[in-house]
Design goal:
Beta-galactosidase, Chain A, domain 5; five-stranded antiparallel β-sheet
């Protein structure tokens, strides 16, 4: 059974750097997560943190995948994983949604191959020539038991 909000849930996001944005959503430059409310590298309760930023410098497991884990109480974790083609992940708590009853009811996780505003900054932007291809893999593992402490 779900909960009314995500505040009591625990999650882990493997990013060592976050990309804060200005008042119109344009990234203002990378910053380390150390000592900020954006430091989600260890499994911990979300609480009332408002988050709507991209993360990078993702810590990867031995299989090369970066994982975001979300778990409520003693239940199983839901894990979203990405391969190394995805160096960025956007995390969104929904605090800015126009419908008040939808805010903080889920955690948005968006794998990204480039930084926000990459068409202007070039950060992570990949240009493919005609005939070139690029493969990327991501997935969701539901029901993975995870410690929350």
């Amino acid at each position: 059974m779900g909960t009314p909000t995500i505040d009591a849930a625990h999650r882990r996001v493997p990013g060592a750097v976050y990309l804060p944005v200005d008042d119109v959503g344009i990234p203002t430059g990378p910053r380390p997560v150390d000592g900020t409310r954006y430091d989600l590298r260890e499994q911990q309760q979300l609480g009332d943190r408002h988050i709507d930023v991209a993360y990078t410098r993702l810590r990867r497991d031995a299989d090369g995948r970066a994982r975001v884990r979300f778990v409520h109480g003693e239940g199983p974790a839901v894990t979203l994983w990405v391969d190394d083609v995805y160096p960025y992940m956007e995390i969104f708590t929904g605090d800015t949604l126009p419908e008040a009853d939808r805010r903080r009811t889920g955690l948005g996780v968006e794998p990204m191959t480039c930084a926000p505003d990459a068409f202007n900054s070039g950060d992570g932007l990949l240009t493919l020539e005609p005939g070139q291809t690029r493969q990327a893999w991501w997935g969701i593992d539901p029901g993975v038991k995870e410690e929350t402490a």
